[in-house]
Amino acid sequence: MTPVLSVRRLEKRFGAVVAADALTLDIPTGQKISLIGANGAGKTTFVNMVTGYLKPDSGTILLDGIDIGRRSPRSVVRLGISRSFQIPQLFVELTAAENLTVAISGIGTRMSLRAPAEAQGRRDEAVELLERFGLADLADRPISELAGGVRKLIDIAMALVRRPKLLLLDEPTSGVSAEEKFTTMDRVIHAVAPDAATLVFVEHDMEIVSRYADRVVAFYQGRILADGAPAEVLNNQEVRRYVTGGVR
Amino acid sequence: MRKGLHPLVMIALVTAVTLFGRVLPTWTLSLATIAASNALIALGIVVLARTGNVSFGQGLFFAAGGYGVALIANAWGLTDAVAQVIVGAACGGLLGLVIGPLIARYSGIFFGMLTLALSMVFYGALVKSTALGGSDGFNVGRPSLFGMSFTDPREADFMLYAVSVIVTGFAGIAATILFRSEFGLASLAVRENNLRVEYLGLSANRIISINFLIAAIFAGASGAFALMAQRHIDPQFAYWTTSGEFVFVAVLAGNQSVAAVFVASMALELVRSFSNLYLPNTWQLVLGVFLLGVILFLPRGIGSLWIRDRHKRRISATVPLTAERGAAP
Predict the structure, then answer these.
(1) Residues in domain ABC transporter (chain A) (predicted)?
(2) Quick check: is B298 in a domain?
């Protein structure tokens, strides 16, 4: 399969800490890839570099052959990579529908200084996206009144608005109760399916990883420790020792 | 859908307020003209404040508009009030177009202090400029309207009142449309989380720059009104206390209602005039107590007297707040 994202010898240091050590990785179209690793292993740094928040010290990041390593987050998003955040980054004083309206209004041509933000077409689009996540009845609720799990889903919904080629989710089930984690992830996978061709998610929960990922990439001290099918990676001795701590 | 006055109703209101000037006593006409002029510049501050940035230096654009109009009026004999407002707005806007993109990358206190610093640099330049009259400034002639000159003071005051109310009223209507627009919503988003705005593919800097430009245009037009009312201009237009007064009006009004800006501006002018009349030595004290009272009892501004919290208003029409799936504990 053709890689949608191709990373070559990516390096990033914060002082003496090596967050990315000559990372090389191809992400083919259509896969669901999970990035695993202990805290500080370099997963979020990788996501931040791919999405333009951090600039790599060296190496290349190619999206469909275009070098995006030095581009701004806005430019990267416009080229087709969207992301959600470990801590949802929402507009807390606005309602769920308004959050999505802001996202929708940024697509395509210039944003209108006259067209009402609550025009029916825009609102329908926002509510339709919320409906995919089973949240349509919360459309008019301010984010400040919503629970953490719901905020996570709205954060993901906002990332989906642009129908990205590659969607990166940073710990989509963190903060969600053990009973609800599969329901939440089912919703995410179901909602993402029509739009995002390729999905990369950072995850600590190995049950989620083994159930939803096609491929697992294990990080350790800024390097890729193992890369392959979930069963293969999760049974890898080094991964069990440094990443999962024997948990399966 | 959010309810609000239809623009046609707003136009009718502006017309009614303009015609009401016919029955107002002469002394209130000039007071209302100053209030409308101050409301216009304060409206610009409110527009900008919706992005989370407050300008403490709107005196810069106020003075740019005033000086621009005064120079053109004296050099080319431009006396038409409407043309002067357009020239003032253009002068403020041109300056805003240059400064906006440079300053938009800063936020919070840095943004505020930079605007203040720029206005004080301009003030310093004006004071030192002998060609512009230095600290004394210079005078301009009486304004006309569409070729008509007004020798009767009452008629001249009414003409200025009418033009200022109409221009400020239409600026208010434009601001209302802007607040309800996609762009208005994105401006609120910038105030809350500009990183997320960038991750949605929008430019937070561009949104701030456009709001800054609008505020500068309003300030330039306001400077033209102040010039027409006083028929004199001096560097005080750019001084920090002048800018501070406009921020006062914006704080009094809050950012929930465009109408509140006009009410706040009129209230401030009335309190200032009456306290100056009856307590000439302590009028600043009265003004300070008035400001403290508003901030204490109406922390969200005068607009909160008639605008309920936007979400409470909407939710009350939809579902109960408690015991609902997804609601935070």
Answers:
(1) 5-246
(2) no
Per the structure, the complete domain to which residue B104 belongs is given by: 7-240
**Which residue of A lies nearest to B184 if distances are taken between CA atoms?**
A113
Residue B323 forms part of a structural domain: no
Question: What is the ipTM metric for this complex?
Answer: 0.88
Mutate which of B176, B182, B183, B203 to disrupt the A interface (most A C-beta within 10 Å)? B182
- Number of independent structural domains in chain B: 1
User: Which residues share a beta bridge with B139?
Assistant: B232
**Is B321 near chain A, with CB under 8 Å?**
yes
Q: Do strands B138-139 and B232-233 pair parallel, antiparallel, or not at all (unpaired)?
A: antiparallel
pTM exceeds 0.90: no
In a domain, B138, yes or no: yes
Cβ atoms within 10 Å, residue A163: 13
By C-alpha distance, the chain A residue nearest B173 is A114
Does residue B269 fall inside a structural domain? no
* pLDDT single digits (tens) B240-291: 988 888 898 888 888 777 888 888 888 888 888 888 888 878 877 887 888 8
B79-104 average pLDDT score: 93
A147 with B193: Cβ contact below 8 A: no
Taking alpha carbons only, the member of B257, B233, B231 closest to residue B176 is: B257
| Sole residue written with tokens 């599969």 | A182
Q: Which two tokens stand for residue B74?
A: 């004296």
Name the A residues in 87-116 with CB < 8 Å from any B CB.
89-95, 98-99, 101-103, 105-107, 111-116
